[in-house]
Amino acid sequence: MKSFRIAFATVGLALVATPAIGQYYGTDGEQFVSAVEKRDGNKATELLAGHPTIVDTKDAKGDTGLIVAIRDSDNDWAAFLLNKGADPNAHGANGDTPLIAAAKVGFDFDVLIDAVDAGTGGATGRSKADAPEIDGEVHLRDAGGLQPGDIVCARIEDSDDHDLYGVPV
């Protein structure tokens, strides 16, 4: 009889834990990432309105909406998600952060120039979507002629844990 109670309790605990597993499959979170993939702004906005933290939910493959947008080189969606609080350090299915995903696909996006080094021809800036408290900079080579405050489209060529490296396009 005692072993029956233990087995029953184990099954009960497994059933209670099921929603934690289900958060990645068929939930609002997966619908949100699907809306990002389909570029369905109305659906994504509707889901975010009801659950703002859904912005970092992963799909069945393990990718966030931000990683999907970056993988697809969609500047508008990436900026939208960052402005909605998407975590730029969240890891995707293969362990990559959005920064690493951006470097891998040759992502182009607008960079707000913060400083220019006339001696080296380089410039340092940040994504227009970055808040001042977010770490990470975008370092550009061959950036002659730029001034602080300029916005330039840059192609990302490399990255490390915090920064991106690229060139104006």
In short:
With 169 residues, the chain is of the alpha+beta class. The protein is built from six helices and five strands; from the N terminus they run H-H-H-H-H-H-E-E-E-E-E.
Please provide a written account of the structure.
This protein has 169 residues and is an alpha+beta fold. It has 2 domains: 102 residues, Serine Threonine Protein Phosphatase 5, Tetratricopeptide repeat; 63 residues, OB fold (Dihydrolipoamide Acetyltransferase, E2P) (Beta Barrel). Helix content is 39%, strand content 20%. It has a 5-stranded mixed beta barrel. The N and C termini lie far apart (73 Å). The N terminus is likely disordered.
What's the structural blueprint in terms of helices and strands?
Layout (H helix, E strand, L loop, with lengths): L1 H21 L5 H11 L2 H10 L14 H7 L3 H9 L14 H8 L2 E10 L4 E6 L10 E3 L10 E9 L4 E5 L1
Parallel strand pairs: 3-5
Antiparallel strand pairs: 1-2, 1-4, 2-3, 4-5
Helix pairs in contact: 2-3, 2-4, 4-5, 4-6
